[in-house]
Design brief:
mainly alpha, disordered C terminus, single chain, disordered N terminus
Length: 523
């Protein structure tokens, strides 16, 4: 596997540079603190939260200057964290012994401030509160939306959740109910508890990503840096408190135990992952293959597929019997969903075809359902192909591709959906060429999107809304351009991912960034 080598000091080197020295760990922590502080101005709060009566928060959340400054602090903090992540990977290039300890230290340092932030980039965590209330009220979240509850909107949930059934598994409904039992409808304490649950998922990823990477002879430090220390990963799974982190963490743990022939434990953990979000059902055939072993013939594979499916079915049936919802989650999962987003391939294709057909006067009421059906059939076909075709040594890669087929061919792709896939590709090896560049690009794109798209502004300041979103977007574009083309430290990372011919041209025409001078300050 190729690595981007840099002559900047490694984690074990001593920084003796001239001028001030800020390690990536410190830089990232500063960025994370800025994200936390910015969230107090433009992060999400339930309208009934006692924090809305805090004089300081009132001052910064109800004033034009406070909202603008908060937007700037939040967005700039995201990009400082992004740069620190780039620099951490650059300094650890070659991934010497001890690198994993440094990466894990960065994850802790960058996560802790976000544990105390207001929700940003998404407010799905408030929907968890409503679903916990549904369970406590004896209603079925797979049938009823949270609009059946009194004062549901005052507890912070987005209006899109009003009539929607929950897409989460029955195990996570138990978590939501438990939070409701512990703190009632307190929105702030509920957010904190849900964030701790999400952070537990981050810790699972931090434990099992390097373990599985080592099975594939991939640097565990590099895989953990690419995925778990990734700023989008931490923002989405700590600051946003998405339960997807628990789903991914349990899935990775199940994959590790299945790959090391502890199949029953592996399947139980995968069942728990399905119990959080049922999308990980797609992993089951591959878990069965891992459990069967590398030399298994077809009869043995079939037998272990039966073992895997039976064990998961029994576990889910027991959970469904215990909570009274049966397999209602399966019905919701098989639903086609509504809407599209333009950066999903299905959404982009629908938009192009809709415009073309409208231009020539053909009706398009049938178009979106047809495109969705074709995409779903294509994803199922790709999954089946990957189940039955491919080398035994590439089972986890095949699993990652199958998971990707379901996500990419979905009409809606949320930024954190990409984070479902990233750890599975990282543990099997991401090359330091266009593959790593794609990770940089997608991470940067969704950070820019989330920072601008999910900004809370009171209605009486609504005229400010488009301006601060444009301001955030402008900061993101300037930051991306600076890091890619002007920053003397980070631009070499992007040059290093170019083909050799283009790389030679670039390095021949630009002055040295000073990386070969051991006295250059390590900032």
């Amino acid at each position: 596997m190729n690595h981007v080598h840099s002559s900047v000091p490694t984690a074990k080197s001593k920084a003796t540079g001239r001028g001030p020295h800020l390690s990536p760990l410190i830089q990232g922590t500063i960025g994370s603190i800025m994200v936390m502080l910015g969230s107090y101005a433009v992060g999400w709060l339930a309208s009934v939260s006692p924090m809305n009566r805090n004089p300081l928060l009132i001052a910064i959340r109800t004033d034009y200057a406070g909202v603008v400054v908060g937007t700037v602090v939040l967005t700039v903090g995201c990009w400082i964290l992004f740069r620190a992540w780039l620099r951490l990977g650059q300094q650890l290039a070659g991934w010497p012994e001890g690198s994993l300890v440094v990466v894990k230290r960065a994850i802790w340092s960058w996560s802790i401030p976000m544990l105390f932030a207001l929700p940003i980039f998404s407010r799905d965590v408030f929907a968890y509160i409503g679903q916990g209330r549904l369970v406590a009220a004896g209603q079925d979240p797979y049938v009823a939306g949270i609009s059946t509850l009194n004062n549901w909107f005052q507890l912070g949930a987005d209006i899109t959740w009003a009539e929607d059934e929950t897409p989460y598994g029955p195990l996570y409904l138990i978590v939501e109910f438990a939070v409701n039992r512990m703190v009632g409808t307190s929105p702030d304490l509920s957010v904190l508890l849900f964030r701790l649950v999400a952070f537990a998922g981050v810790l699972l990823c931090m434990i099992y990503v390097p373990k599985i990477a080592s099975l594939h002879k991939v640097s565990g430090a590099k895989a953990t840096w690419i995925s778990v220390a990734n700023p989008l990963f931490l923002i989405s799974f700590v600051a946003s408190a998405h339960n997807d982190s628990l789903m991914v963490g349990l899935a990775l743990a199940g994959t590790y135990y299945a790959a090391t022939r502890r199949g029953v434990l592996g399947v139980v953990l995968i069942a728990a992952s399905i119990g959080v979000k049922p999308i990980t059902l797609v992993l089951l055939p591959f878990i069965g293959l891992l459990w069967a072993g590398p030399d298994a013939g077809w009869w043995r594979k079939i037998r272990y597929w039966v073992y895997t499916a039976t064990l998961v079915a029994v576990i889910m049936a027991v959970i469904g019997w215990a909570n009274g919802y049966g397999f209602g989650w399966l019905k919701v999962m098989l639903g086609t969903g509504t809407g599209t987003v333009i950066f999903a391939p299905v959404g982009a294709l629908n938009a192009v075809l809709h415009g073309a057909l409208t231009t020539i006067g053909i009706g398009t009421d049938w178009l979106l359902p047809a495109v969705k059906l074709v995409a779903r059939l294509a994803s199922v076909g790709l999954v089946l192909l990957l189940i039955f075709k491919g080398k035994q040594s590439h089972i986890v890669q095949r699993m990652a591709l199958a998971f990707s087929a379901l996500v990419i061919l979905s009409p809606i792709i949320q930024p954190w959906y990409i984070l479902w896939l990233l750890p599975f590709f990282a543990i099997t090896g991401i090359r330091d060429d266009w593959q790593l560049l794609w990770v940089y690009f997608t991470t940067a794109f969704f950070i820019a999107f989330g920072a601008a798209d999910q900004i809370f502004i009171w209605q009486f300041l609504s005229d400010l809304d488009p301006w601060v979103k444009q301001l955030s977007t402008a900061i993101s574009w300037v930051s991306m351009a600076y890091l890619a083309f002007l920053d003397p430290r980070t631009r070499s990372l992007f040059v290093a991912t170019l083909p050799a011919r283009l790389r030679r041209r670039t390095t021949e025409t630009e002055p040295s960034a000073g990386n070969n001078d051991p006295q250059v300050p390590n900032t």
